Amino acid sequence: MSSNFKVLQVIPKLGYGGAETGCYDVAHYLAEKKCKSYIITSGGPLLKFIRKNKVKVFRLPVGSKNPILILLNTILISLIIIFFRIDIVHARSRAPAWSCFISCIITRTKFVTTFHGIYNFSNSIKKLYNSVMVRSNLIIAGSNYVFNHIHKNYGNLINARKRLLVIFRGINTQYFDNSNITNDKVQNFYSSLNLSSERFKILLPGRLTRWKGQEIFIESLNLLKTKYNKENFQAIILGSHQGRKVYFKKLISAVERHKLKKEVFFIEHLKEMPVAYYVSDVVVSSSIEPEAFGRVSVEAQAMRRPILASNHGGSKETIVDGKSGFFFENNNPESLAENLNKLMEMDKDKLQSIGNEGRKNILKKFDVEQMCYSTFLEYKKLVK
To answer: Which pLDDT score, from 0 to 100, does residue 2 have?
Structure first.
């Protein structure tokens, strides 16, 4: 078969997360390669950016775990496969993967899945539900950490007819590029939070949830101030609580208890994430549970900013320790504070040198073009 094959990607919702942007990027890359590109999703803010002349979108409730809706989706996906003569179906989440799996059996279509995270289980029923992600012809892991998780927990379901490989998630390095940031954008950001250009700025991005480690981060800032006598800093916690109001109030209470109200700022949403990276002197990823990939670490390096991350999970694959960033002991505010203090002690030239190494690292390994090209080549192998 020639390279102009037809690929249908299925994802619950097109938001701004790594799985969603990966789906978006691959869809448009395929169109540029003269392939036919289709997406099934329930909706999402990223929809408005899809070029309708390049990618055809179907709206179905594929995020639902309701058995009746899964059956309905199976029938509709099967009809789409038949009518549009789809060659490959690529599921990027468990709920739609079941509909895709059954549809591909019915229509004898090649099936691809991507593990964008790790799927743990507490019982055999949950493991069975998760197992659909290894019932495909091609299983893609977003990092070596995820690859090892699949082998350890689902290896008995993988046989010689299935391929399991790693394709690192890529980011748009043209979007995450310092050269795009104007003085007006910087000044608007400063004025919106009343930030000072004279103070050392620490950024912690990520949705507000316990496992992202915001509590550890606040504790480390308290130590930075009381143990290391550092006061000339401002910290930005950037992320939505997504309905976790009790946890959000707990974070505010911690800030007030440690008398950090003048140093810590909360931002729920930001239209242009690169601006937040640009104004920061260092970026922190303090997740107390392993990140499957560590998108913050990659974006920060692309923006030439030193990254300080927990020493576990996918981040260990994206950061060159001591060169493009540093690791601190997971779930340890004292270790985080110690490393923040070291970074504050460095001069601007040293920080810039670390940032430049980060940019080189990302361009070499984690550019979106590389991710899309690798995925495209694997698709081609399936339809030979």
So the answer is: 54
